Amino acid sequence: MSTVANTGAQGSLEKRSASPLIPEDSGPPSNLLTKAQTAKRFKTQGGRQSRKHQHPKKRHADQAILEEIESLFTRLLSEDEGGRPETAAKRREFASEEDEKDWYNSPPVPDVFSKLRRRQQQQQQQQQRSEVDTQPESSADASFADVHVLELTSGGMGLATLERRDIVVDRLRGGSRAWVYVVPFVLPGETAHIKVFRNFWGYSQCDLESVKEPSQQRVEPPCKYFSQCSGCQLQHWGYANQLEFKRRVVENAFLLAHRLLGSTVPVLPVIASPQPLHYRTKLTPHFDLPKGSDIDAKDLLIGFNHHGRRQVLDIEQCVISTEAVNRGLVAARDRTREAIKSYKRGATLLIRETNEPLGAEKGLSLEAQPASFEKSYVLDPKAQVTEVVGHYQFKFPASSFFQNNNLILPAFTGYVRDELRRLGELLVPLDVVENGDDSGTRLRYLVDAYCGAGLFGIACSKGFEKVIGIEISRESISCANDNAKLNNLSNCEFILGDAAEIFKKVPHDAAQTAVIIDPPRKGSNPAFLDQLVGFKPAVIIYVACGVPAQARDLKYLMDKGALVLEGSDSDCQEGADELLGFAKYKMMAIQPFDLFPQTAHVENIVSLVRTDLLK
Ligand SMILES: C[S@@+](CC[C@H](N)C(=O)[O-])C[C@H]1O[C@@H](n2cnc3c(N)ncnc32)[C@H](O)[C@@H]1O
After folding, report:
1. pLDDT digits (tens, 9 = 90+) for 423-432
2. What is the pLDDT of the chain when averaged over all its residues?
3. Residue nearest to atom 8 of ligand 1 (CA)
4. Which ligand 1 atom minimizes the distance to the CA of 402?
């Protein structure tokens, strides 16, 4: 099978391979980020710290890609040595800052833009000199190459090198380094023909021209827009392989980026979405309308960003979205086209599925009711949407936050509920501590921080005396309180505010309290985390849609001494938490979930317990 992603002149490789593409005397890009820079990355997930004084190629490079390259090299070395990642630290450093700059300033591929300019100039000169031979210079172009894909980044981009894996490992072992090509829509182990379109500090961004040696794991993408639409990254990979890839993404984020885990807490296999297609309950296609343009409705492009172009790709159907959402997409496109004259600029449309339970009496719990729904869609952002998760109903405005894969939500919330029960049983029962008898239960209170419309607080409320949620969106908090009433729950209260403030408002004994946190993709922040471990809840369940940010937050707790790894010295410092003013936690499980099949996104749930309360 050979996939052609782009058409374009096939470049000659002879010219390129004649010169040494990878400098012999070169070291790995091990010092791309200093410790201080890494610390500053806390502020944003992407680590966009001030780059004013950096070299332009480094300033514009994607820091996340640089880290992934670093992580890949570290792993290649450690795998090769059959040992722990730490062994990679043996690599030779650059001799000097100048040495480092020189290497990054002269990538093994020439500056593609200056080359293009030179070629244009040559062509002009040639045309001026001779009117007879107008044949342009052959498409021999050093920006084409065949590369070997070693791995995918957490965003699903291939990291490839000119040489095969074993030669790259040899180079790394010898203290040398390899230039990396970042290529979309490829798989590990494949050989791809690529075209470089931009060079950065240590890597080149490429278009995929064709797959020369496909992986056996490659499958036919189910969507005709795949490789043009920027929405999905993994449709060309079998679903089981996607799941294993996501497990490794979590493992790498924890184990390698932050040396967080040691080998004591394995990352569990990813829990799959019940359906790898037709699961998405919300779509937000958009269209552009340049100022003053008088576009014909039939020519209007409505869809998603075209991969690698500043252009909208017209999308008629989306295979990862539900059938109701696809019906809504048709209606939204028609409606927009009909009303095109009323738009002055482009806009983003909203399509959201709503699941009205059939036969459910309004305001009653759905317990014991048949699970049949009328699935329809809404296009108005203010329209009320209903979702049913297990025995609970949730209502919220179409534009506000709610998880977008409702098929997996019973398993997702059920896992958190089971984890609360399981961890509660691992703790010393309350009355043993208080009265010396063992009849009491430990976890009586639940805090749901970043609670949205109350999903986790409500779904896990059973068995808790009191649930308190906090959320910064006024709209969501009002929905959360309404949802508690809708489900006849009198033990739930949702408060408007910043999550970092919640612990001042929790009147309950921390040693009997579990906290669920589910922050946005950028993760939490030191203010919240300090208060969290200062409050000292018995159990913490951290739900994350941004795994790198989650790993960073846990590393913060580890550096602070609040998260201890099994066997580490701080594990045995009895009572130190009393002096320090925060509790110490142990990681009990790392469970990823696949809420977004076919894309590179992964959700991850980490469970922590207070070490001094463990039986
Ligand atoms: C990933 S969503 C999770 C919502 C909810 N747990 C769910 O699963 O439906 C994150 C939520 O955090 C809220 N949020 C963001 N920053 C916050 C802050 N500083 N304090 C409280 N809530 C915040 C957002 O409004 C959003 O509803």
Report:
1. 999 999 876 5
2. 81
3. 455
4. 9
Q: Are 35 and 539 in contact (CB under 8 A)?
A: no
Give the Cα separation of 491 and 447 in Å (integer).
12
Question: Model confidence over 565-602: pLDDT tens digits?
Answer: 775 544 444 444 556 789 999 999 999 999 999 999 99
The Cα–Cα gap between 77 and 165 comes to 11
Which residue's structure tokens are 């008629």?
316
Residue among 471, 475, 503, 521 to mutate when testing ligand 1 (max atoms within 8 A of CB): 471
Q: How far is the CA of 469 from the centre of ligand 1 (A)?
A: 10
Ligand 1 shell residues, CB under 6 Å? 401-403, 450-453, 455-456, 470-473, 476, 498-499, 518-520, 545
- Going by CA atoms, what residue is nearest to atom 27 of ligand 1? 452
CA of 73 to the centre of ligand 1 (A): 35
**Whole-number pLDDT of residue 320:** 98
Q: Which atom of ligand 1 is nearest to the CA of 400?
A: 27
Q: Is 206 a catalytic residue?
A: no
Q: How far apart are CA 519 and CA 169, in angstroms?
A: 38
Q: What are the structural domains, with CATH classification, of the chain?
A: 14-145+164-179+196-210 (no CATH), 407-429+441-613 (3.40.50.150)
Protein residue with least CA distance to atom 6, ligand 1: 451
Cα–ligand 1 centroid distance for 517 (angstroms) = 9
Instruction: Compute the distance between CA of residue 611 and CA of residue 575 in angstroms, rounded to an integer.
Output: 11
Cα 519 to ligand 1 centre (Å): 5
pTM: 0.83
Query: How does residue 75 score in pLDDT terms, banded at 50, 70 and 90?
Result: confident
Distance CA 260, CA 559 (A): 10
The residue behind tokens 């290649």 is 76
As a whole number of angstroms, the distance between CA 521 and CA 544 comes to 7
Does residue 126 register a pLDDT over 50? yes
* pLDDT tens, position by position, 258-268: 566 555 788 99
- The Cα 261–Cα 143 span in angstroms is 41
Residue count (the chain): 615
CA distances, 435 to each of 58, 404, 440 (Å): 62, 46, 9
Q: Report which residue type is found at 147.
A: V
Is 223 an annotated catalytic residue? no
**Residue 215 identity (one-letter amino acid):** S
CB atoms within 10 A of CB 342: 7
